[in-house]
Specification:
Length: 186
Amino acid sequence: MRKLKVFNHVSLDGYFTDGRGDLSWVKEGTDDEQNRFTTERAEGGGVLLFGRVTYELMAGFWPTPEAAEALPEVAERMNNLPKVVFSGTLGEARWNNTTLVRTDPLGCVRRMKAESGPDLAILGSGSIVAQLAGTGLIDEYEFMLNPLALGAGRTLFEGLQEQLHLRLLRSHVLKNGKVFLCYGPA
C-alpha cells in the first residue's frame, strides 16, 4: 500500500496561511541550509496531490525561470512528477503531468493508496488535509514550523470532528530558527 504524506509550513500560532490567504511569509528567513534541506527532501519523487488554490499557486511558480534559478532540482521534480488536483471549479489543469479530479477526493485517495506505485504527497492544500485528517488515510504529517506568529489565518485541521492523536517520528532544527517536524498516527 502506498504511503500518504502531508507537508505544510505552519506558524507558531498554528496557521498555514495568513488571514488574507497569503503564503509569502514562508519565504522569510529562507537560507542555503533550508534550500539544501528542501532539495534533499524533494528527491523522493511520488505523486503530488493538491487542492485548487495550492495547485494554482504552485503552477504559477514552479514552471517559471525564477523557480528554475532559485531551486533548479526542486523545480525539475515539481514540473515532471505526476500531479493530481482536486477541484470542482477549475476549468482545466495545464501544468505538466496533472490529472484533474472533480469529485470525491476521499474515494480517489483511497483508490490511489490501494494501488501499487510511488507514494503520495499533499503539499499545502489545507481543505484536502482537513477532509482526509480524520480518515486514517494520512501516514505522516510533516510541518516546517516557522518562528513567527500570524495572528489570524487558517489551520490545517478546520472541521476535524474528533481529536487526532499523533506521535513525533523525527525532527530537524535549522539554523534559521525553522523546525522540521514529522508526526505519524499515535
